[in-house]
Sequence to fold (359 residues):
Amino acid sequence: MANKDFKDYAIAGNNIGLTYDDINDTVTFSATNTNSVLKDTVKLSTAINKGQAVYVSGADGTNIIVSKASNVTEATSSKTIGLLETSGTTNAIVNVVTDGLLTGLNTSTATIGDPVWLGINGDLIYGLVNKPYAPANLVYMGVVTRVNSNNGEILVKVQNGFELEEVHDVDLKTNAPTNNQVLVYEQATDLWKNKTIPTILGFNPIKTVVRDGNASTTITGNTNEQPIGIYLIPANTYSANDIMRIATLTIEKIGTIGNCFVRVKIGTSATGVGATTIASFTLGSTSLFANITRSSMIIRGGNIRVFNPTTSVLTDVIGTTIAPTNVTFNPAVDNYISTTLQLGSASDSVFQSSFLVTN
Fold:
């Protein structure tokens, strides 16, 4: 080959092919079809197979140590770096493909173009239809570029999905999220924050505390006071200056021989023992139905301020000269509201058909 001064040539890709034509005294450069592959050398914490996903689980001062990645937890998914290039046993030094083409895989259950997702214990999930959703942690591993049981290929491109709290304008750290909070925009801080509905509104909207539309056990042949419903009011359901409202207490009586005495009580015992009466009504002997309400039970200073508990009225939405009564009530602890019925005649029968308590 004579000494030539080459002035015009083309380079493409990472490699160049050179061919000399001694007849025409020409040199041809051609680019080969190559793909760049990025790899990291790592040490295995356990036996891991080729093509399994791994995450950085430690280091020994010399080597990066990896373990099988898993979408079950943030700790085992957020540090996923790629797919193992070759199988290895515990403490083996091998390579991980972090970006680029990995060949020689079993992709027989996939379709060309399927996205690849991190599964459990290093395994992979193929296709949009099988895409993991919460509570699984989403990690995109790449895309299937060849389907084969022995010579399948995946183009590795790891992308770790974000938790909501990792988005730069969402603040879920200042106040830890609690049940039934919502995410709202706060203009003063230019952030999205978790808040309760009452905090957003500036007051407690009406909410159901007790809802019982089931008919209670019918009392008959017994003139003793009988508890027919005991209902939990969880701690912090109410706060200072809230209003507890008995929206309805429906009583039905069968028989017209005697009266029926209805009482609503409140206390801290799940059995209703020691509870204090906060409302009452006497259903007359000829009366067969009563729908009782109390709307002005205001929580103040460790008490409920109620209409006189022993005065028999269907509703307290009335003008009266009777002074209100304070009944001990601590909204910061679990309380129990109970209903009782007492027949004046054993020949009658009575039951509670509904009970609704709101704020």
